[in-house]
User: Which sequence fits this backbone?
């Protein structure tokens, strides 16, 4: 079977979110970088893959997908459905809950921090510390909920690894590239959960790809 193609540079945490899922699912895939510098993401070829002119996009034969979390779910359904607990009504519902929490609580607090600390300086601007501080406070409130949850079970959806955990990987690796990694220190169960994720070969692969020299 021909490998899938993931379009987008691995400096983007939306792209590496997909890499974590593809790796953990054991999917065959290749990565084709898209050059923002030349505006390739707005070219007709790429707009045919992602009509919003964004990365990532995935091609699998005649199927084209965009939206990183939809791509992640597809990789799991195709290659390792147990990462979604397909077939188990209650466990799959818990996976869905924590997939939503990742997108709407965790990453929505993290995104402005990552943008201010990692992207704004590349664009020639200066980090807005007020935005960072406000969102660190939001993140701490979210992490309190995670700490309580991870006191009861090993992973977010239960005592099993799922896509809900893996979807946290790319943005959390980025958080550790900012000066604010110590925000995790107050949450021992969150730290242990993260250490467990970091030990997985799939996550190691993502971490290696996100290093600028990779
Ligand atoms: C967001 C994609 C996105 O913002 C997803 O796939 O999860 N909800 C979508 N992609 C950015 C890359 S930065 O990580 C992008 O392509 N930006 C270029 C642009 O919007 O022009």
Assistant:
């Amino acid at each position: 079977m021909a490998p899938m193609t993931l379009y987008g540079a691995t400096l983007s945490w939306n792209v590496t979110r997909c890499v974590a899922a593809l790796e953990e699912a054991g999917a065959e895939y290749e990565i084709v970088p898209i050059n923002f510098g030349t505006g390739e993401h707005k070219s007709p070829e790429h707009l045919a893959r992602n009509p919003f002119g964004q990365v990532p996009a995935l091609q699998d034969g005649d199927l084209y997908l965009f939206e990183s979390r939809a791509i992640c779910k597809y990789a799991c359904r195709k290659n390792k459905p147990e990462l979604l607990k397909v077939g188990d009504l209650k466990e799959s519902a818990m996976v869905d809950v924590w997939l939503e929490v990742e997108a709407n609580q965790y990453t929505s607090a993290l995104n402005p921090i990552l943008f201010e600390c990692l992207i704004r300086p590349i664009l020639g601007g200066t980090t807005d510390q007020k935005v960072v501080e406000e969102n660190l406070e939001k993140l701490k409130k979210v992490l309190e909920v995670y700490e309580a949850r991870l006191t009861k079970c090993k992973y977010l959806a239960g005592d099993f690894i799922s896509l809900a955990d893996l979807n946290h990987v790319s943005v959390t690796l980025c958080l550790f590239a900012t000066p604010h990694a110590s925000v995790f220190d107050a949450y021992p169960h969150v730290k242990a959960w993260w250490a467990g994720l970091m030990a997985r070969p799939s996550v190691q692969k993502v971490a290696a790809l996100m290093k600028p020299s990779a």
